[in-house]
Amino acid sequence: MIQGGKHMEKEIGRLREILRNSNYTVALCGSGMTEESGFIGIKKPERAYEIERVYGASPEEIFTSSYYNTRPMQFFKFYHEEILDKIPEPGPSSHIMAAMERAGHLHCIITSNIFDQEKRGGCENVIDLHGTIFMNRCPHCGEYYSVEDIQNSKGVPYCMICHSVIRPLVSLFGEMVDSRIMTRTTEEIEKAEVLLLLGTTMQSEVFSNYVRYYNGHNLIIIHKEEHYMDHKADLVIVEEPGNVLCQLGY
């Protein structure tokens, strides 16, 4: 486990060599990547407490299909104020990963984030596990709407064709990931020579079931916090992902 100093410089050199010798590298991007840009996850204790104080319910209760279906006014008040009003810009990691892609040293990015930071930062081969706020659809007639349509709506956004409540195409709490996305994700991880975990851990509730499909010998974690399962990785650098990636020379 590497944390700071000259030893970290040595391990960054090791990481650089691993990436440049890899024929297929896959990155898993967790909540730590949005935190780089200042967005604190709604389930983080300090933010969840404030949400419950303001809205009278926990984020796990509000950000659900049940709330969307039965309390759309409350759901979209929360969605506007806590999600759409706080969309983070792509962080340094997103731009560097795009450069890694162009150099042929990063082949697939799998993200749990819903803000399209990787694509907005220039990355191309991105799998959105939990969907994206930039795609919205009427569940009744199938008409698509932009995020600007939702932002400009007053209160609940209604379909202009059939007047049903528009649904953001993101995974709400308690919903399963689309089976086609799950299949593609496992296929990408299975063929990876190098697996990068950026801003997440092996035991995250999002990625733990996917990491077990990795068959290689270069599982690398770059995350600002230590985790008790880190010893199972081949290389761990305890640092903000952007602070490490920016030293790789892309």
UniProtKB/TrEMBL annotation:
Keywords carried by this UniProt record: NAD, Transferase
The organism's place on the tree of life at top rank: Bacteria
One matching Pfam family: SIR2
Enzyme class: transferase
Deacetylase sirtuin-type domain mapped to chain residues: 5-250
Cross-referenced InterPro entries: DHS-like_NAD/FAD-binding_dom, NAD-dep_sirtuin_deacylases, Sirtuin, Sirtuin_cat_small_dom_sf, Ssirtuin_cat_dom
UniProt EC number: 2.3.1.286
GO molecular function, one term: NAD-dependent protein lysine deacetylase activity
Keyword Thylakoid attributed: no
Coiled-coil blocks: none
The name this protein goes by in its record: protein acetyllysine N-acetyltransferase
Taxon lineage: Bacteria, Bacillati, Bacillota, Clostridia, Lachnospirales
